[in-house]
Amino acid sequence: MKRRHQIVLFAVLLLSLTILSPSFDFGGSQSSEERNPDRTTFPNQTSRGEDQHAPVEIVVSMPSEDFLVFETIANQVAATTRVEIQLRNVEQDTFESVLDSEFAVGDSGDVILLDSNEVQDYAKRGYLYPLNGTTLSKSLGETIIPLREKTEWNGYQWAMPFDFDTYVLAARSAFLTKVGLDTLPQQEDQWIKLIQQTSGAGTKLLSIDSNDIYATSAWLNHFEPGLATERMMNAEQGSLLEGDYQQELQLIEQIQPHLQLEAENAEFSGELQQNEVPMTVMSLSRLLDENKIIMQNTGSLKQIALTALMPVKSRSFVITTGSSETDGASRWIEGMTSASVQSEWFQQAHYLPAKQEEMNAQSGKLASLFDKMDVKALFATKPASSEAEITYVPTGKVQQKIKQFIQGQISAIQYMNSIVELRGLSK
What we know:
alpha/beta; 10-stranded mixed β-sheet; two-stranded antiparallel ribbon; globular
């Protein structure tokens, strides 16, 4: 009797240990986590059964009109690649905070369309899946080099460049002709002529959204040797306070009273109407969008002279470490960055393609739309030392000083002194 009681107790103990141990089964196999150690390589990674395939969740942040185009193209690609997708468009002013909170709890989407400047930061925090080992590895080498460099870190590629935009200086050709210019102004005397022309007509010279740091940085970088770039922050103190920097800043100070600021809703068409501002700094995508009717009717924007400014904004697709659908995500991204889709996205949404071959194909078409266009900065195929500044956008206190200078709140010398001070504090 005593022996039978011991056997029962032993059986109960064995059963208890079996229930409490997740890594033990009666077939002697290991737990799923032990069988697949790669699942714990990255933080915040979730798991699904091997035979379960959830929709690939794609998270973007873009204006509603862009999202409608994106949604149509994304679903077409999903059907072609046989990948089930679920799209989510997050408000632009809450996008960063939403991503941070979702990454923190491990509940982010599978694919996110990020500003390329943000890719390295998210990769360093362990939130992104490296693309080198995916089917995208070959396609990565076909992207524009300066854009691809923004998504590299620690020897790995963390994102696939999708599109980019650039800010441009545009002028109505008729206005330039009135003052005897064949091209956009380069020298101080040419700018003075344009100021005199608009002053006599009672209009402003140039519209710019002073709240857009990309626009204001691009405007200041138009004046050599680049007045809002890393070059200023790294220059010798003596060179900042004299020579070209001082001369160009004084020229901008002369132009400043003739700027129409906060021009977020301003329109710029090829036709020169009375009392309209004849020049503008805005993104190329917006310029093309505002003139799409002209493009459809005539296939040309010959009334506008154009030159590309810097810096550019670019976006890239990333796969998160929390995704268990990396294969489907890779196939869908590959479809979205194919030549045909890149061309369609440019034609409908007016953002330039990140694939070098497709960019080359579009360059001649785009240049032919305008009366005069400097395409060198826009369509450069090889990175050079001067093009390194394409990716630089000032932040923090530098942004604040740029905005104050553009708005006329501080003088050229005050702006220069503040840059000298900030440069000293940064070292």
